[in-house]
Structures are given as C-alpha cells and as structure tokens.
Amino acid sequence: MSFLIRVQVPDRPGTLGAVASALGEIGADILSVDVVERGQDMAVDDMVVELSGNRLPDVLITAAESIDGVVVDAVRPYAGVLDTHRELELVEEIAAEPANGLQILAEGVPKIIRSGWAMVFGHRSGGAEQLAASQSAPQEGYLELPWLPLARATILDSDGHWVPETWQELATELAATPIGKPDRVLLAGRPGGPVFRKAEVARLAHLAGIVSVVLEG
C-alpha cells in the first residue's frame, strides 16, 4: 500500500538521505519526493512510499522521526505517484477544450497539490453556485460561502461556521483561490490533512491565474 508522508526536515546536507535510509530499513520503498516548502533552517517534503505487507503506517512515523530534528506532519494513504509537473499538461488540456475547462481544472487540481477533492464556485446574488467538481468531491446540496467573492488565494479556517459538519469530522483542511476574478473560485479540500502550506497555495494561485487567461482567450 502507498502512503503520502509529509516531513519537516532540517535543511542540512544528508538529512533527507538519512530519512530515506531509515525508511528503507523498515522495508518502505520510496516512490517519489517533492519539496513543498523551503525555509531558512527547515524544508517540508512530501514523500510517497510503498509499505509492504500489513504493517501499520505508524512505523513510517517512528522511522522518519528517528533522525534528529525530523518531524512528521501527517501520513495518509495515497493512490498514485506524485505528479509535480502536471500543470503544463493540465493547461494544455483546458486550452484544447475550453468549454469544459472548469471541470478539467477541478479534476486536475487534486493530482497537482495532492488534495482530496476540488470544486469550482461562482458568485451570484443568491449565494454560491457550483460550476464544477472533481469526482471525489463531497456532494453538498448547497454551500454558503461567506468569503466569496475572494480577492486572493488563501488558507481557510477549517472550523468556520460555514464548513459542513461532515468536513469538520474528517478534519478537512481547506484552501481557495480566485480564478481570474473574485467571483469565480476554486475550493480545495484535504480530508485528514496535512495543512496547506503557503507555497502550495501560491502554486494553486499561479495555476488558476494561467487557466483564467486560457479560458478568457
């Protein structure tokens, strides 16, 4: 079974290699590594690993944190391999079929930022109107989005009064970005975490900006 493990790693030579070695010693096969965010003293990395047998994912946490200074943010099951360069492919798909562009965007975003789902909403006088959603998105009859229109990409409060109870029960982390204009937004959810990082939200905003140009072109 494959897992996505997000780790905070001291930004010093050899530390990530030491983590990889520790995971290898427990029989975990590393499929891919993606740098999510890098600070002055610490880096945040996403690693997709395959764990053989019926071993519990707790062993991944124990192994990774056996390296001095390493902290595991989250571990969750993951279907597939990290696809960190799919933005261009997604934009090309949208350019080829702009009439279905918002739906293509909603389906593609979870594969890029590793969210559980994505939905696109428009703002109208009566509230929010769902324009597109990934197949994995929760089915909500109506959502009140008090932050819509949205001026800029942001990490949302997952305990906000507008957040459906089922999302809160699943500890769903949330982020949103306007798609070219404040009254058209993409909402991404990550049930069970980890929390969205500023670098991830910036990446989402950049993608949404490019897509808006393609759709309006």
Care to describe what's here?
With 217 residues, the protein is α+β, with helices and mostly antiparallel strands. The chain has six helices and nine strands, in the order E-H-E-E-H-E-H-H-E-E-E-H-E-E-H. The strands form two sheets. It has a five-stranded antiparallel β-sheet, with helices on one face. Strand 2 and strand 3 form a beta hairpin.
Give the SSE layout.
Elements (H helix, E strand, L loop, with lengths): L1 E9 L4 H11 L2 E11 L3 E10 L6 H7 L6 E7 L9 H10 L4 H13 L3 E8 L2 E7 L20 E3 L8 H5 L3 E6 L5 E7 L7 H19 L1
Antiparallel strand pairs: 1-3, 1-4, 2-3, 5-6, 5-9, 7-8, 8-9
Helix pairs in contact: 3-4, 3-6, 4-6
Task: Provide key terms for this protein.
9 strands; elongated; four-stranded antiparallel sheet; alpha+beta; five-stranded antiparallel sheet; 31% strand
Instruction: Report the span from N to C terminus.
Output: 43 Å
Beta-sheet strand percentage? 25-35%
Average pLDDT works out at 89
- The secondary-structure class comes to alpha+beta
Major beta sheet summary: 5 strands, antiparallel
Number of helices: 6
Q: Say how many strands there are.
A: 9
| Rounded radius of gyration (Å) | 18 Å
- Sequence of secondary-structure elements: EHEEHEHHEEEHEEH
Low-confidence stretches: none
Helix content: 25-40%
Q: Within the largest sheet, what's the order of strands?
A: 6-5-9-8-7
- Gross morphology is elongated
